[in-house]
């Protein structure tokens, strides 16, 4: 009875499908019989291509046996990858400032203080336009602090290799910025990188003039003067002691990139100024004070030339000591310089022009240097009642007048050579 029950249970189970190997082999043989050869190689070595079936494209015949061996297939030449042009392709990385991060504050402490700035050789550039001008001129940045990644992506990627990039909060930049509306990016740089924009003169023409700044203490005026010096093609700018620092952030903003277009020598003593001048340079001073010009041109009245004395020379410390002395002796003590209009040729020899500040005017050292080099007082006539021009305006007028005189002389030299 148990055997019958077991047999009935086994009969009720479904059987697993079994694949027959002979069926698979038969199908393969049938498919092989249906295939048509593509080419037929005859005993003579000739290769005959079979006609394609309906709806199939003909295949090209293979080269005959015994012919030249087929060349190995050459891989298609991939176009060479261009150098990375975007910020992402260059693989640049930046850090995010964490709470209490002191990197920005430590840099600002250095660049905001002139003694620290001169000791460490670091300056601050703020704003996308100024930073782009500095990079274009070839200046090398040390670090960038920015609030938005887009500000860094706008800069050339190849210029940012090896530069420390730190993303900070906009409020942190605002706390350290001198701008009313901060632009969200500032950089730490090393000064002393400048391109000489002045073209060398040809032939016997004089080199471009040198600008000497004397007691210029207004950052806006100095920045504007540097722009004029770069535009007029000055060979260099010398800043004597008593001038505002050329790398002060306010001067940098007013200069609009001129710092990187003309060489600047900062914080010079008057004794060292001649070392930075070409040989046989004549130092001229921009002077609109006529109290001593009257002695030079006694036949004409000062009012005829628009000279108005502001008596700033009486502020010299040696004059103060001799204030109770003889006025004639005091006047004779002042260096005796010839006065001429600014548009009379004064670039026949290598020239340097001294621009004084509006508060203290020209220093006694500048007049002594002009006298020792055979320089003159360059007068820009103004109408009666006007004290003097702004220092930046006077510098622009004189520098571009000097450029005009040099170009006129080069034209005469060119015409003289053509006749020879």
UniProtKB/TrEMBL annotation:
Record key words, sorted: Methyltransferase, rRNA processing, Transferase
Task: Give any GO molecular function from the UniProt entry.
Answer: methyltransferase activity
In terms of SUPFAM superfamilies, this protein maps to:
alpha/beta knot (SSF75217), L30e-like (SSF55315)
- Positions of region (Disordered): 47-92
InterPro entries xref list: Alpha/beta_knot_MTases, MRM3-like_sub_bind, Ribosomal_eL30-like_sf, rRNA_Methyltransferase, SpoU_MeTrfase, SpoU_subst-bd, tRNA_m1G_MTases_N
Q: What name appears for this protein in its UniProt entry?
A: rRNA methyltransferase 3, mitochondrial
The source's domain of life comes to Eukaryota
Q: Tell me which Gene Ontology terms the entry assigns under biological process.
A: methylation
Instruction: Tell me what organism the protein belongs to.
Output: Echinops telfairi (Lesser hedgehog tenrec)
> Which positions, given as ranges, span the membrane?
none
All copies of the RNA 2-O ribose methyltransferase substrate binding domain together span 124-195
Q: Which family does it belong to?
A: Belongs to the class IV-like SAM-binding methyltransferase superfamily. RNA methyltransferase TrmH family.
Signal peptide stretch: none
Q: Where is the composition biased (Low complexity)?
A: 60-78
Q: Name one Pfam family in it.
A: MRM3-like_sub_bind
Q: Known SMART domains for this protein?
A: SpoU_sub_bind
Gene3D superfamilies from the UniProt entry? 3.30.1330.30, 3.40.1280.10
């Amino acid at each position: 009875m148990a055997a019958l029950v077991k047999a009935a249970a086994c009969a009720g189970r479904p059987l697993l499908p079994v694949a027959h190997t002979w069926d698979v082999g038969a199908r393969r043989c049938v498919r092989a019989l249906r295939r048509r050869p593509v080419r037929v190689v005859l005993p003579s070595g000739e290769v005959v291509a079979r006609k394609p079936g309906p709806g199939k494209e003909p295949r090209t015949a293979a080269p005959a046996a015994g012919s030249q061996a087929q060349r190995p297939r050459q891989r298609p030449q991939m176009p060479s990858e261009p150098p990375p042009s975007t910020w992402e392709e260059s693989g640049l990385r930046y850090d995010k400032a964490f709470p209490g991060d002191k990197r920005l504050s430590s840099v600002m402490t250095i660049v905001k203080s002139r003694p620290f700035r001169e000791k460490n050789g670091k300056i601050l550039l703020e704003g996308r336009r100024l930073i782009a001008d500095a990079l274009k001129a070839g200046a090398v940045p040390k670090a960038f602090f920015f609030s938005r990644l887009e500000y860094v992506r706008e800069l050339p990627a190849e210029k940012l290799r090896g530069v420390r990039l730190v993303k900070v909060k906009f409020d942190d930049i605002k706390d350290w910025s001198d701008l009313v509306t901060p632009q969200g990016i500032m950089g730490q740089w090393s000064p002393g990188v400048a391109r000489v924009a002045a073209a060398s003169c040809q032939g016997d023409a004089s080199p471009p003039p040198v600008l000497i700044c004397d007691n210029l203490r207004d950052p806006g005026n100095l920045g504007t003067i540097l722009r004029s010096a770069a535009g007029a093609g000055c060979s260099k700018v010398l800043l004597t002691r008593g001038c505002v620092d050329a790398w002060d952030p306010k001067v940098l903003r007013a200069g609009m990139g001129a710092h990187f277009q003309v060489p600047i020598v900062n914080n010079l003593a008057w004794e060292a100024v001649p070392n930075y001048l070409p040989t046989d340079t004549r130092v001229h001073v921009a002077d609109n004070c006529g109290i001593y010009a009257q002695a030079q041109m006694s036949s004409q009245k000062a009012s005829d030339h628009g000279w108005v004395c502001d008596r700033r020379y009486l502020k010299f410390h040696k004059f103060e000591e001799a204030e109770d002395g003889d006025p004639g002796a005091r006047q004779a003590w002042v260096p005796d310089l010839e006065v001429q209009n600014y548009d009379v040729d004064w670039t026949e020899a290598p020239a340097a022009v001294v621009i004084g500040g509006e508060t203290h005017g020209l220093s006694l050292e500048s007049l002594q240097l002009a006298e020792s080099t055979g320089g003159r007082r360059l007068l820009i006539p103004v109408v009666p009642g006007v004290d003097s021009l702004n220092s930046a305006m006077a510098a622009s007028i004189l520098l571009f007048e000097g450029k005009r005189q040099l170009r006129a002389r080069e034209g005469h030299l060119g015409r003289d050579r053509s006749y020879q």
